[in-house]
Amino acid sequence: MSSELGDFLRSRRAALTPAATGIRTYGASRRVPGLRREEVAQLAGVSVNYYTRIEQGESHQMSDSVLDALANALRLDETERLHLVRLARPAAVPRRPAGPETIRDSVLALAESTTDQAVIVVGRRTDLLGANRLGYALLGLRTDERPNMARQMFLEPAMRDLVVDWEREARNTVAYLRNASSDALDDPMLAELVGDLSIRSPEFARIWATHPVAECLHAVRDWDHPLVGRLTLNEESLRLPDDPGQRIIFNGAAPGSASAERLRLLASLVTSPPDGLVLPE
Known about the structure:
By secondary structure, the chain is of the alpha+beta class. It has helices spanning 2-14, 18-21, 37-44, 48-55, 64-73, 78-88, 105-113, 133-139, 149-155, 157-162, 166-183, 188-200, 202-208, 258-271; strands at 118-122, 128-131, 218-225, 229-239, 247-252.
């Protein structure tokens, strides 16, 4: 995990510029992207030697003040700050069960009882654990399918047609997995997923190397659905406190919008498909 910490810090200082942080430069050519180590150390108020040892994984038990100073120097948001703390203090991260995840009957019943929104339930490794019929229809899946959504995003060609801004959604997927990886240490199934995607998808490997981190709890997403056309949906993702890492995700359209009409059309096609139309079962 010390190498993860160093990689994360390097990725964040590479993403910053002296101008963005108020550091003055004097025209000398820069051989590194972003900030140098000594510039981060200066901003954080620590010695260059100490900061170098942190990046190299040789410094342990950083104080709260040092972690706060580094987070401020690197302009980290709240999710990135928490990620930094977990990487710096892996012993304090609670261990999650390593086996396959299951969905509680009451959670599935909640998803299935919602008829005007597409609802899916996703686990901490982005496995699809359940959904209502409209949720399956939105994703173009059969009701008996339980794919891993990260694999769907990067390895299923149809997702590139379904998701309008594929690059953004792909980055969001990686950012969520990065966040999950520091919140579920020593999870062999999660490590296997990341390794498999890194080998099979050059795009995943490229994005993973930049260390994006995000919670992805709400968003506005555009879909280009093969049955009903363009949908602009508001996504709200709610964590399930009794099932760490699991989320129930609601996708709904603004009332009175064209997307609301198309979502209702998709719902009607799911419940009563016209003659000749074959829908996933």
